[in-house]
């Protein structure tokens, strides 16, 4: 039995347990899943003194309201998040992201909303006590697999936390994610299905992030991207970040819980280093795409990883 328990008083809009993701199960229809924003996921675990791949609680837009039912808990929240902590004396404290807090029995944490972004993360020292599925704690709701029986949080759920024998942490870093001018992409496998004029529109005009966006995919609205070849092709394997163009001409970016095969032409793939920024774009945000070459994408990813490692090293 774990030493500490959190009770869910309000589950939030879409609160699930996630880790780094589930590898190499595309052949049975399971995507990687995992935390949408990898950098904020890693920072949350490191602030809490956990190994990189401990499961954390990912929430979207409005997060959960949680009460410490038993024990003492050390936690940290990352992202651009508005939250409050209420202690047993009913005193409310404005929460600060990228900082540890200790909660005692009877205390509550209310994750009110994300600010001009989508995802935030809550990590607890010692980690949540969960069962793995296919070597991962990640919850994939559509397949109903992963932690919490493959479901998002519900009212009155109890979250059990592993014992944490080290001294409770007092860590903090200053971090604010930079703004983006464009999302960088590589050519997709069906790039040549589109005329030069269509490609020019795709790279020079803005697209609107619509409300039809979740962990599976992001639907965009903008100039119509008509294929001069087939609008439907034989189903092929998909990867995270691929940009498909269905028959209505409005592109869809496949995200972490994407289907593993698809039959729409693939015009582009979002580079790995820009994925975190992409998934944090809230509905009604406008974006532009920039085409780059593979060698440049590799250099950008190395810089992204170095920057992430430097942030984590500041915590230790």
Question: What does this molecule look like?
Answer:
The protein is of the alpha+beta class. The chain has 2 domains: 4-161, no CATH class; 183-312, Cyclophilin. It is 15% helix and 30% strand. The protein contains 4 helices and 21 strands. The protein has helices spanning 38-47, 196-204, 275-279, 294-315; strands at 4-10, 16-18, 56-60, 65-70, 73-78, 81-86, 92-94, 100-103, 108-114, 119-124, 158-161, 183-187, 207-213, 217-221, 236-237, 242-244, 252-254, 261-262, 266-270, 286-287, 289-291. It has an 8-stranded mixed β-sheet. The chain has a 6-stranded antiparallel β-sheet with strand order 7-6-9-4-1-11, with no helix packed on it. The protein has a 5-stranded antiparallel β-sheet with strand order 2-3-10-5-8, covered by helices on one side. A hairpin with a 7-residue loop joins β16 (242-244) and β17 (252-254). The longest helix has 22 residues, at 294-315. The two termini are 29 Å apart. 41% of the residues are buried.
List keywords for this structure.
316 residues; alpha+beta; Cyclophilin; 2 domains; 8-stranded mixed β-sheet; 6-stranded antiparallel β-sheet; 4 helices; 30% strand; elongated
């Amino acid at each position: 039995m774990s030493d500490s328990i959190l009770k869910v008083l309000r589950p939030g809009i879409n609160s699930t347990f996630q880790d780094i993701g589930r590898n190499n199960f595309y052949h049975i229809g399971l995507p990687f899943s995992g935390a949408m924003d990898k950098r904020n996921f890693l920072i949350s675990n490191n602030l809490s003194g956990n190994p990189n791949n401990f499961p954390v609680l990912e929430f979207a837009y409005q997060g959960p309201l949680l009460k410490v039912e038993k024990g003492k808990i050390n936690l940290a929240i990352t992202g651009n998040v508005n939250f409050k902590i209420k202690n047993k004396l009913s005193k409310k404290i404005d929460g600060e992201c990228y900082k540890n807090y200790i909660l005692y029995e009877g205390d509550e944490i209310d994750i009110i909303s994300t600010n001009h972004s989508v995802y935030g993360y809550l990590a607890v020292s010692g980690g949540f006590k969960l069962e793995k599925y296919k070597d991962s704690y990640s919850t994939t709701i559509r397949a109903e697999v992963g932690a919490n029986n493959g479901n998002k949080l519900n009212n009155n759920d109890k979250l059990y936390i592993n014992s944490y024998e080290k001294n409770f942490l007092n860590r903090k870093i200053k971090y604010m994610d930079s703004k983006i001018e464009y999302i960088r992409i590589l050519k997709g496998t069906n790039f040549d299905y589109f005329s030069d004029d269509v490609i020019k529109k795709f790279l020079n005009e803005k697209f609107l992030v619509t409300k039809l966006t979740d962990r599976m995919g992001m639907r965009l609205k903008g100039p119509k991207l008509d294929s001069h070849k087939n609008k439907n092709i034989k189903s092929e394997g998909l990867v995270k970040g691929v940009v498909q163009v269905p028959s209505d001409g409005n592109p869809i970016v496949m995200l972490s819980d994407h289907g593993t095969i698809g039959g729409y032409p693939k015009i582009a793939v979002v580079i790995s280093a820009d994925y975190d920024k992409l998934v944090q774009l809230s509905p009604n945000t406008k974006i532009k795409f920039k085409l780059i070459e593979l060698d440049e994408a590799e250099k950008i990813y190395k810089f992204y990883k170095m920057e992430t490692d430097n942030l984590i090293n500041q915590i230790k």
